[in-house]
Amino acid sequence: MSADSPTLDDLTARVRAFSEARDWAQFHSPRNLAMALSVEASELLELYLWCDDDGPQPRVAEREPKVADEAADVLMCLLNLCDRAGIDLAAAFHDKMDRAEQKYPVERVRGKALKYSEYDEFEGDS
User: Fold this and answer.
1) Which of helix, strand or coil describes residue 107?
2) Are 41 and 103 in a shared domain?
3) What is the pLDDT of residues 6-64, one digit of tens each?
4) From 120's CA, which of 56, 75, 76, 93 has a CA 20 to 30 Å away?
5) For residues 34 and 38, what is the distance between their CA atoms, to the nearest angstrom?
6) CA-to-CA distance for 99 and 105, rounded, in angstroms?
């Protein structure tokens, strides 16, 4: 990461200041922010609607610049949600990755697209 890249704390502070300047915190309960996050993620997903796996992504070229905007909306909502819910997103990320590395050891799962609970059943068939 570049030395001048903003940290999650920097991004969260900017989102918080944006919201506070507009007096929007009164509307930003964790519940409402979780719903907003789902809506923004759906708007991102919509840009890829009806794409063929082997075709252009997104299918309509004019949608491509919108992908970054929608991804940024998702990040803003997630940072806002975590801020309001008291979640240290960086710590939660590291904790989750540690657990995922335990659930999905490379030597067992490499190249397989199964849920961790399905590996015993799959390996029993081989």
Assistant:
1) helix
2) no
3) 999 999 999 999 999 999 999 999 999 999 999 999 999 999 998 888 888 988 889 99
4) 93
5) 6
6) 10
**Token pair for 104:** 């999905």
Q: Give me Rg for the CA atoms of the chain.
A: 19
Examine the domain organization and report whether 80 and 99 are in the same domain: no
Same-domain status, 76 and 107: no
Look up the domain containing 119 and give its range. 89-126
Name the DSSP letter for residue 50. Answer: T
My answer on whether 62 and 2 are in the same domain is yes
Q: Rounded to an integer, what distance in angstroms lies between the CA atom of residue 33 and that of residue 31?
A: 5
* 48, 65: one domain: yes
SS3 of 1, please?
A: coil
Do 25 and 68 fall within a single domain?
yes
Q: What are phi and psi of 50, to 5 degrees?
A: 70, 15
pLDDT bucket at 2, cuts 50 / 70 / 90: low
